[in-house]
Amino acid sequence: MAPIPSVLSSLQSQSIEESKENKKRLKAEEFTLKKKTKTRNYKKRKRAHRKEEEIINKEKIRLAKEKENFEKQQNKIRKAEEKRIDMQ
Length: 88
Hints:
The chain is mainly alpha-helical. It is built from 1 helix and no strands.
């Protein structure tokens, strides 16, 4: 009967070591998942920010073109009025 308790104790020690290893492995996996999630979220934020900047830049370009066209029209109107005044 003496060998049975030693076998049980060795099995218990093995299971304790395995559970410790499993805990370490799980913690490591959890850490990598958190890191991947943080990286993924960071990339999403950067992508969204980049898209916002692109939209803002397109809007600035559109407004600049609009302003330029408006100024051209104003110059045409002014020149037409000057010609009309000169004709009189």
